[in-house]
Design brief:
Oligomer: heterotrimer
Largest sheet of chain B: 6 strands, mixed
Chains: A alpha+beta (378), B alpha/beta (226), C mainly alpha (93)
Order of helices and strands of chain B: EEEHEEHEHHHEHEHEE
Helix content of chain A: 40-55%
Radius of gyration of chain A: 31 Å
Distance between the termini of chain A: 38 Å
Helix content of chain B: 25-40%
Number of strands of chain A: 12
Structural class of chain B: alpha/beta
Strand content of chain A: 15-25%
Shape of chain A: elongated
Strand order of the largest sheet of chain B: 6-7-8-3-9-10
């Protein structure tokens, strides 16, 4: 056992001496590899943590929502629908909701305007999200003009700003009273955006949804589990374009490693010949190659993954931010609560270390088996 | 110490480029002697050396090393015998470039996994004995011709072999360095080592330390019929 | 120091790093549990359905409310043109 360990250490000694011979080139290789792992791990960590957050935070979203679809588009629905839904057995309450989008030209941002169930402000007041406050430089007491549907300006006064710790769900919100909402968007009394339904028994939700569709054929019900599942699926790492691109980069790296290993230079062949001549067996030479691949890929993995953790959970995902932000001008300021899937990390480990190591060893198989007296014969 | 009985080595047997490098050689090498194989290039000296040193297997014939027949030993055992019994010095020194002299000397012992302090001490001792104590940390390619050759000898000695095999060791050395080389050979002989050298250099062949000089031509030893 | 010792040290440091990260994650989760609870409470109170992440367009802002053909409200053959689509794919059923 001691001999085996010592042998490994000697081989690693020589491998590192060997790599140090072309220090610059090998360091550059390591840096690029680590960068690819870093990028991939960053996206994986971000998506996973966000999924975790969405599951936690949206668990109390409305149990069931009913939308109206006209000619394939989401349309307003009449008071009668609310009554119909409220009359379904199992429904403990149905409420018509009002919400929509407001595009603000000065800040070029999209706001979500909403009338909460119990708006605690007076008519003429509004409550804004922290992102809106930033975008418009607004504070409590300020005037907040909005362009109404009929072209006139509706000026509301900021009553309060929603605390920043909830930005992830509220950054772009404008909360107003029902009257102001209807004036702003010219929505006739008795019409609503959708219906929020509370169901007594959680297991009944699907049944109620089915009944809704039967009673109101052009209705589209959305359950709470569907809401949560949406976030699961859109943040699934397999479907993100960025992940596909980065996985491709990883694969390209492995291919480059293979190519490099296949084209053993005369110098490298000579070196293997010398090793064989002084007493190294084929297995010793191959062990050296395995460590050569392992040293680089282990280092790249460690640096890349630890860097990604720091980047996503200690920093502010600075490098992914442009992609996330996209074209939106209003973006919530938040730091994700750390949540890492160990299975993901393990998979990444195998994908980083094994293919690269194999790509370093296999092409050298032939060269490693040369006869020990080949050096004498040249 | 080493005995060869009617050994033949044929390359590419049965093919159009078939070559008989060693053609029926019988040779006995006594322990603690210096034997020189003399002959022009192409005479089969190198092939014979690689057979003696358990680096290659003969096509036919038997080889006995230290009382043990090695001709039909499995690969692993053969390698083990080679590692522990023989040390090789090559024509061009053949040190690994980019690696220090000290590490070069320790390389043959790496696969054997002995504790490092002992190995380090032994390697240092050998290099100092050969006047290379000041070149321990120099890269192998910075050594002069003579220094490289001495480093190669140190490397050959690191596993404390009983037999040293040298293939044209002085081919790239001047007269002075060749004489220095033979002095080292004398020292090693005095320490009880057996030495086999292939060389066509007269300074080597005519040196008084040599116990026996055997001529070789066309794969056969002189006096065995041409 | 021997080269392999230096590498072993590096591996040990990396292992420590991973352990540290795991500890940090657990500690942070505990420390910020109240914050997460505040967000959950707000969702409950206001009846929210989506995170306010992708505010570029209507269907990116409320992906859970959008239907598969909602992007096409913009244009009949609307391809994904928002950068956030590269991180979040369209919802599957």
């Amino acid at each position: 056992m001691r001999t085996w360990l010592e042998r490994q250490r000697y081989v690693v000694d020589f491998t590192l001496s060997s790599l140090a011979r072309r220090k610059g080139k090998n360091l550059a290789l390591l840096a690029v590899y680590a960068l690819v792992v870093f990028s991939l791990a960053s996206v994986l960590f971000f998506a996973h943590a966000l999924r975790h957050e969405s599951r936690a935070v949206l668990r109390d979203a409305p149990e069931l929502l009913v939308q109206r679809v006209v000619a394939g588009r989401h349309d307003l629905l009449p008071q009668a629908w609310v009554a119909t839904v409220a009359g379904i057995r199992g429904v403990s309450g149905a409420r018509g909701r009002l919400w929509g989008y407001y595009f603000d030209p000065p800040s070029r941002a999209n706001y979500t305007v909403m009338v909460p169930e119990r708006f605690w402000g007076a008519k003429g007041q509004l409550v804004i999200g922290a992102g809106v406050a930033r975008a418009r430089g607004a504070a409590p007491g300020d005037q907040f003009p909005l362009k109404a549907a009929d072209g006139t300006y509706l000026t509301l006064v900021v009553r309060e700003v929603i605390p920043a710790e909830s930005e992830l769900v509220s950054a772009d919100l404008l909360l107003v009273g029902e009257e102001d909402f209807r004036t702003l968007f010219d929505v006739a009394p008795g019409t609503f955006t959708d219906v929020a339904v509370s169901v007594r028994n959680a297991k009944e939700v699907q049944t109620v949804a089915g009944k809704v569709t039967r009673l109101l054929p052009s209705a589209r019900p959305i359950t709470r589990s569907e809401i949560v599942r949406t976030y699961d699926s859109i943040l699934d790492w397999r479907s993100g374009l960025v992940v596909v691109v980065l996985a491709g980069a990883l694969l390209a790296f492995v291919i480059v490693a293979w190519d490099k290993a296949s084209g053993l230079s005369a110098e490298e062949k000579r070196e293997i010949g010398i090793l064989k001549a002084i007493g190294w067996e084929t297995s010793d030479v191959l062990l050296m190659k395995v460590w050569e691949g392992a040293v680089v890929s282990l280092a790249a993995f460690a640096v890349g993954v630890l860097g990604a953790y720091a980047h996503v959970f200690l920093g502010d995902v600075a490098l992914l931010a442009p992609v996330l932000r996209g074209w939106s001008t209003l973006y919530p300021a938040f730091r994700l609560v750390p949540s890492v899937d160990p299975y993901q990390v393990a998979t990444l480990f195998f994908l980083t270390v094994v293919p690269y190591t194999v790509a370093t060893v296999v092409p050298c198989w032939r060269a490693a088996t040369i006869d020990p007296d080949s050096v004498m014969r040249t | 110490m080493i005995e060869l009985r009617n050994v033949r080595k044929v390359f590419n047997e049965g093919r159009p480029d078939e070559l008989t490098a060693v053609d029926g050689v019988s040779l006995a090498i006594a322990p603690r002697t210096v034997t020189v194989l003399r002959g022009p290039s192409g005479s089969g000296k190198t092939s014979l050396l690689s057979l003696i040193g358990a680096m290659a297997r003969p096509t036919s014939g038997r080889i006995v090393v230290d009382g043990r027949e090695i001709t039909s030993l499995p690969e692993r055992f053969l390698t083990d015998v080679r590692r522990r019994t023989f040390g090789f010095v090559f024509q061009q020194g053949n040190l690994v470039r980019g690696v220090t002299t000290l590490e070069n000397v320790m390389l043959p012992a790496y696969p054997l996994g002995e504790p490092r302090p002992a190995l380090l001490a032994r390697a240092r001792g050998l290099l100092e004995m050969l006047d290379l104590g000041h070149r321990l940390r120099s890269r192998a390619e910075w050594l002069s011709g003579g220094e490289a050759q001495r480093a190669a000898i140190a490397r050959a000695l690191v596993n404390a072999p009983k037999v040293i095999i040298a293939d044209e060791p002085t081919a790239h050395l001047d007269t002075k360095l060749t004489r220095e080389f033979m002095e080292i050979v004398a020292r090693l002989k005095a320490e009880g080592k057996t030495i086999v050298i292939a060389s066509h250099d007269p300074i080597v062949c005519d040196d008084p330390v040599v116990d026996r000089a055997v001529g070789m031509r066309d794969g056969r030893l002189d006096g065995d019929g041409a | 120091m021997r080269a392999s010792s230096r590498f072993l040290l590096f591996l040990a440091a990396a292992a420590l790093g991973f352990a540290g990260a795991a500890r940090h994650a657990a500690a942070e989760r505990e420390r910020r549990a109240a914050e997460v609870e505040a967000r959950t409470a707000l969702v409950r109170r206001l009846g929210l359905t989506d995170l306010a992440l992708f505010t570029e367009a209507r269907y990116t802002r409320h992906p859970s409310q959008a239907d598969r053909f909602t992007p096409f409200q913009e244009h009949p053959s609307s391809l994904e043109h928002f950068p956030s689509g590269s991180i979040a794919a369209p919802p599957r059923d």
